[in-house]
Amino acid sequence: MNERIRRLTVFLLFLYIVLFAQLNVLQVGRKDSLDADIRNNRQTVRDYNEPRGEIITIDGVVVARSQRNPAGSEFAFRREYPAGELFASVTGYYTFSFGATQLERTMNDVLAGRTVEQQVKGLAALFTGADTTGSVEITLDSRIQEAARDALGDREGSVVVLDVTTGAVKALWSRPTFDPNVFAVQSDELLRDIFAFGNATPGKPLLANGYQERYMPGSTFKVITTAAALDAGVVTVESVFADEAEFLPPQTDDPITNYGGTTCGGDLAEVFIRSCNTAFARISLQLGPEAMVAAAKRFGVGVEIPIDLPRPAVARFGTVAFFEQNLPLLAIGGFGQGETQLSPLHMAMVAASVANGGRMMRPHVVSATYDHDGRLLDRTDPSVWLVPMTEATANRISELMIGVVNEGTARCCMDLAGDVQAAAKTGTAQLNGPGEPERSHAWIIGFAPADRPKYAIAVMLKGTDAEISAGTGGTLAGPVAKKVLDAALAL
pLDDT digits over 385-406, tens only? Predict the structure, then answer.
């Protein structure tokens, strides 16, 4: 009898070991493949039936939260975005079958209460059922974001505002955009239609165009070219450029002209203030392919911007080998035309690096994260990403940008409230070919106050065909920048 019991015990123990091993194979070894299997929606259903924490602006406005559905609903909760489209580029959306974007994706563990720290602190919740979700505080200020939206109006484009010394994003607005509440529907069929419509709509509204799209920056890129030339000693403030209406670079019989064929020249301050294409084409060629490409890289061109949001656009300029065979493209690349492309966020970072003594900070939108009881989980510490120019060069370019506001292409529109001095550089990136109707991106980048910089800004209006001129960036983008900076500085 004892022998039979022993055999049964051994057999049961064997079965337990087999079951234990199989459970580990399924739960550990095959976890990733099972989670990815489209037939497995248990994880999705479980996640969607749990609450998520709030996303809140630095000034206390809730921009994403979970709301309980009425009794009898298929799901216990639904995601809600009280500010509608205003913060869509930062919050993104959270859907049942189509995943999540932006902070809803990158901060999912905090919002769902799944970080190690939250799990440890919430062990008692296993017995009590207490809420273990966390919240995310973002750096954006609702008042500055609203000012950006209102100033841009119904035009397509982007506005980015940064804290100069920390890299904190204070506004990130683009139009066209979308209302994330639309994606909170709990119907797969309806969601497919919504995505199809969004993807077919011109202007890529489902992208955060302020940092996920890149555009020709026009003459705002002259800040980078000037920094490269000053640091290399190729030009000084005493350098003088001939008055000329056109300049013929090597390898071509097609001359580079100033806007409208105007004659332009003078010392460095004059050609910067008047935005003389011919002078900057000469500077680019004098620097040469290797130095220009290296300078662009020092400003982060060609590298993914280290922002805490997904899929930032990578800026383009060109390679040394390419420019050695295409010197005319190097010449026009030096004033932001041709293959040169950067995102509005990147150009705001360029302006901020001038304001910050040559230091380019890592941009970030997450200020801090908290557990459900309001205890701090993590806080973003500001850090320097790149040092693209010397402090002396940054100070010199700051003076040049003040000249643009006081005497140059931005003098029409950057008279800030309270007699605050701003510094800026305008840009008109021409998109039309020879014989085509004129069409340009209108840009302005800058910062204020000029003597103790707090905010840097980039404004880009897409493909405008109105009032095209050398000062388009000033006349069209300038008033937008003024309104936003006035609102920010008033705080």
Answer: 999 999 999 999 999 999 999 9
449 residue type, one letter? P
The answer to whether residues 366 and 103 touch, using CB atoms and an 8 Å cutoff, is yes
For range 343-353, the mean pLDDT: 98
- CA gap 111, 394 in Å, rounded: 40
Q: How far is CA 253 from CA 250, 257, 280, 423, in A?
A: 8, 12, 18, 37
Instruction: Give the whole-angstrom CA distance, residue 409 versus residue 389.
Output: 24
Strands (E) in 356-490, as ranges, are 360-361, 366-370, 376-379, 384-386, 423-430, 440-448, 455-464
Tell me which H or E stretch contains 244.
strand 240-244
14 token code pair: 């064997």
Write down the pTM of the prediction: 0.88
CATH topology of domain 212-366+381-490: Beta-lactamase (3.40.710)
Residue 457 has pLDDT above 70, yes or no: yes
Q: How far is CA 484 from CA 162, 215, 252, 447, 456, in A?
A: 12, 21, 43, 11, 11
Asked whether the beta carbons of 242 and 204 are under 8 A apart, the reply is no
The bridge status of strand 240-244 relative to strand 264-267 is antiparallel
pLDDT given for residue 107 in this prediction: 95
Active site residue 219: yes
Looking up tokens 């204070």 gives 170
- What separation in angstroms does the CA of 296 have from each of 63, 273, 309, 386, 430? 36, 22, 23, 12, 21
- Residue 188: both structure tokens together: 């797969």
Here the tokens at position 240 are: 């003088």
Rounded Cα gap, residues 411 and 470, in angstroms: 13
Whether residue 334 is predicted with pLDDT greater than 90 in this model: the reply is yes
Strand partners of residue 137: 56, 368
Give Cβ neighbours of residue 432 (< 8 Å, ≥ 6 apart): 438, 439, 440
State the Cα–Cα distance between residues 412 and 20, nearest whole angstrom. Answer: 75
Least Cα distance to 352 among 260, 454, 253 occurs for: 454
How far is the C-alpha of 374 from the C-alpha of 83, rounded, in Å?
Answer: 22
**Between residues 471 and 39, which one has the greater pLDDT?**
471
Distances from the Cα of 308 to the Cα of 27, 90, 107, 380, angstroms: 31, 10, 9, 10
Catalytic residue among 142, 219, 353, 367: 219
**Domain ranges within the chain, ordered by starting residue:** 212-366+381-490
More reliable by pLDDT, 220 or 432: 220
> d(Cα 192, Cα 178) in Å, to the nearest integer?
15
444 three-state secondary structure: strand
State the sign of the Cα–Cα–Cα–Cα dihedral 326, 347, 430, 259. negative
Q: Which residue has 């009881």 as its token pair?
A: 373
What pLDDT score was predicted for residue 8?
Answer: 73
The structure tokens listed for 423 are 């510094």
